[in-house]
Write a structure and sequence with these properties.
Elements: H1 3-35, E1 37-44, E2 56-60, E3 66-69, E4 86-92, E5 95-101, H2 104-128
Antiparallel strand pairs: 1-2, 1-4, 2-3, 4-5
Helix pairs in contact: 1-2
């Protein structure tokens, strides 16, 4: 097989996979926007032994259980306010453990990354195509 053809197939396959993940992320955000339950959580500090940056969000679900949301390493980049402030949280009624912050940046950041990866893969496929 020709190496350029194999590289073209790999780049195209990777691009399609990233594009599907991006669409899935957007659909998840739209489903949360349409059917998700919105509650208010409070940003709390991590334990002193925890090396990760950013805070945690404590909120209660529709049954009154206290849950903790870890917004990830890039919480400050996605709009997490300082410790002690209130932040909106959204979750699907059946799965409150999969809650997300109700900010546009936090909901769409994964999709943006997948779209960017897809664009790079498709661009590489165009450049190497015979």
């Amino acid at each position: 097989m020709d190496a350029e053809l194999v590289l073209l197939a790999l780049c195209t396959g990777f691009g399609v996979g990233c594009l599907l993940l991006a669409v899935r992320g957007v659909l998840t955000a739209m489903r949360l926007w349409a059917r998700g339950l919105r509650v208010t959580g409070v940003v709390t500090a991590r334990a002193a032994a925890d090396r990760r940056r950013g805070g945690l969000v404590v909120f209660s679900d529709h049954l009154g259980r206290e849950l903790v949301l870890d917004p990830g390493a890039y919480a400050a980049l996605c709009g997490l306010p300082p410790v002690g402030r209130a932040v909106p949280v959204v979750y699907v009624r059946e799965r409150p453990a999969t809650a997300r912050l109700w900010t546009l940046r936090h909901l769409l950041a994964p999709s943006f990354g997948w779209f960017l990866s897809s664009t790079l893969a498709f661009g590489t496929a165009v450049v190497v195509s015979p």
